[in-house]
Design goal:
This protein is an alpha/beta fold. It is built from ten helices and ten strands. Strand 7, helix 5 and strand 8 form a beta-alpha-beta unit. The longest helix is centred in the first third of the chain and has 15 residues.
Length: 274
């Protein structure tokens, strides 16, 4: 299956998230996902599975240059020298010569972007990283990033699913041509119990999870990163790209968003959200 590619970085619009996987799962699901047709794999140092993801990539038959590989670095390593060391550590753990997308995982409360982003630019110039981006950044933080980063800002990876309203952030990013990568697209399983999602899924002969992914893929410039550790669910996620929702269904799903919809907001890392 050919996946749509988004933005100047040509990011496949559907990827495999690998957050919170048990020992051995990341290796096997990465290999299985690539065999199924995935070409976008998302990991992070905080997930503690970069080595397994790298092993899964090497065990697959897919050439490395056909895989879009993302990893992320935590704020504890945003000081200039620490950021470079962390990027080198990810390269070693993943067993690759380059990272397709390197993200600042959360905004730092202590280290200014003016210290971290020039190192990201140098890594891109050196060919160790192809594209740079951020994760969990607010609109003011995106503006500051664009003022400092010389390379194009390739993405902002944020929580996005039917229960959270990211309208303002999406509008800003769309206006600037910045792709949005949606993590937790299934709302940590919440979509599976929602009556609206169930009803629409039944109308399409599929699952609420597939409908949630399809809803995201209907949005211009949005990339969905559903996580699964079960190979049996991989094909269903890919098939979501073929689901065509009506305007009424899209509106009904969008109407599920509420003020308490955010699920991921760790006190030690979260900014003042938009």
């Amino acid at each position: 299956m050919t996946l749509q590619k988004i933005g100047p970085a040509a990011i496949p619009n559907l990827g495999l998230g690998t957050f919170k996987m048990n020992a051995g799962e990341a290796r096997e699901i990465t290999k299985a996902a690539l065999a199924e047709g995935y070409r976008h794999i998302d990991t992070a140092q905080a997930y503690e599975n970069e080595t397994e993801v790298g092993e899964g990539i090497r065990a697959a038959d897919t050439p490395r240059d056909r895989i879009f590989l993302t990893t992320k670095i935590l704020p504890r390593d945003f000081a200039a020298e620490d950021f470079r060391k962390a990027a080198e550590a990810s390269l070693r753990a993943l067993g690759t010569d380059y990272i397709d997308m390197l993200l600042l995982h959360w905004p730092s409360q202590e280290v200014p972007l003016s210290e971290t982003l020039p190192v990201l630019d140098r890594l891109i110039e050196e060919g160790k990283v192809r594209f740079g981006g951020v994760s969990n950044f607010t609109i003011p933080m995106l503006k500051e990033t664009q003022e400092i980063l010389q390379a194009p800002l390739a993405t902002n990876q944020v929580e996005l699913h039917p229960f959270i309203d990211q309208t303002a952030l999406r509008a800003y990013m769309a206006g600037k041509g910045i792709p949005l990568e949606a993590y937790a697209p299934l709302a940590q399983g919440k979509v599976m119990q929602d009556p609206v999602m169930i009803e629409i899924a039944e109308a399409h002969g599929t699952s609420p999870a597939a409908i949630a992914v399809a809803w995201l893929l209907h949005k211009p410039g949005v990339i969905a990163l559903p996580k699964t550790a079960k190979a049996s669910r991989l094909a269903g996620n890919l098939a979501a790209a073929q689901i065509r929702l009506s305007n009424e269904e899209i509106a009904r799903i969008g109407g599920l968003a509420g003020p308490d919809g955010r699920l991921v907001s760790p006190e030690s890392l979260a900014p003042q959200w938009d």
